[in-house]
Amino acid sequence: MGTSKTSSGPGKNVPLVPNWVGPDAPTPQVPSKPLTQPGDGGSPSPSPKPPEKRPDGPAPPKKPNEAPPDQGQENPTPTDLAPARRFTSARRAIGNFAKTGDSRSLRSALGNYVKKGYGGSATTSRRMSKSSSAAAGVFDILSRGDGAPTVDGEKSELDVSTLAGLSHSEVAERIAEAVNPGEVSLDDAGVREAIAEAVSSVLNENENADVTNLPPELAEECFVRTLSYSAFNILVADIGASVQRAAHGSAVLANDRLKEISDFVREAYRTQYVKVKAIGSKISRSTSAKIARDVTAQVMDIFESYLE
Predict the structure, then answer these.
(1) pLDDT in tens, 27-52
(2) Which strand (E) or helix (H) includes residue 263?
């Protein structure tokens, strides 16, 4: 069930989205409305006006301590840096949930985590982008029983035929290592753990399933669980220590509450995935990454709306 590791979470004056989070999840231009809360249509915001070109000639004098324009990505602006005590409200609320089991406290924790912890659903979705790429990688492997190349000609990271005869845990570990090998970032261990848990749990619940030719609905369930478990592991790394403290040394209580949180997050992802499919989005190896990002954005929108 999720990760057993907790920490005190990230400190202040660090980037809200760590530099190891890849660029595979573009920042949404306009936050989308949750599918459970459809809003009225509106005109898109006008594109920002491009900067005017300066005439040829000497550059204007640089102000004291002014950084060169090309350093914007290297030195985050103050608004891109995490403020002090940004998770205080989320940690207090999730601690109350650990003590009482009150779902209102859990919703408050998730809302504050998104709104105050990351400044809104758009930034939180970017923070979760490794979850999206992991889920897409799992679907890419499990949705091909024939080892066929993808639409762009690339082979899968792992030939599922090599998994025949392995135990469910061995299958899960092989897939996790293929999708997210190595220790490049602080998220990697949590991502591999999420993949392994997602795949093994689905296979354990479907003992007769053939991993070399997995039914589409089971490949999709592995996709959704990888997406939600990865996001849950990031959340626990940020604020999960408050659950342990609120349990006052009771490992049973702490694990029970963490499982409840994991189940809640998983159902939120599953609900939004079903709704995305209902409006005509069909998952495939070429669309899985985008669908993962879209579902994540919807879930984070809903979590943020818990504060309204």
Answers:
(1) 444 344 454 443 343 333 444 444 44
(2) helix 251-278
> What are 70's two structure tokens?
């090309």
Confidence of residue 185 (pLDDT cuts 50, 70, 90): confident
DSSP secondary structure letter of residue 70: G
Residues 6+ apart with CB under 8 A from 193: 2, 3, 176, 229, 233
Residues 6+ apart with CB under 8 A from 253: 98, 247
Give strand pairing partners of 15.
81
Beta-bridge partner residues of 81: 15
What confidence tens digit (pLDDT) does each residue in 195-233 have? Answer: 999 999 999 999 999 999 999 999 999 999 999 999 999
pTM: 0.76
Angle made by CA atoms 277, 283, 288, in degrees to the nearest 5: 120
CA distances from 303 to 32, 257, 264 (A): 13, 18, 11
The whole-angstrom separation of Cα 276 and Cα 46 is 27
132-183 confidence digits (pLDDT tens) = 999 999 999 999 764 444 445 566 679 999 999 999 999 999 999 999 987 7
Those residues whose C-beta lies under 8 Å from the C-beta of residue 48, and which sit 6 or more positions away, are none
Cβ atoms of 259 and 163 within 8 Å: the answer is: no
Collect all residues with Cβ–Cβ distance below 8 Å to 218 and sequence separation of at least 6: 142, 202, 206, 209
Residue pair 195/134 in contact by the 8 Å Cβ criterion: yes
pLDDT above 90 as % of the chain: 64
Cα 132 to the center of its chain, rounded Å: 6
- Contact between residue 242 and residue 258 where contact means Cβ atoms under 8 Å apart: no
For 119, left (φ over 0), alpha (ψ -120 to 50), or beta? left
Pairwise CA distance, residues 11 & 15, whole Å = 10
Token pair for residue 229? 């478990």
Question: Greatest CA separation found in the chain?
Answer: 74
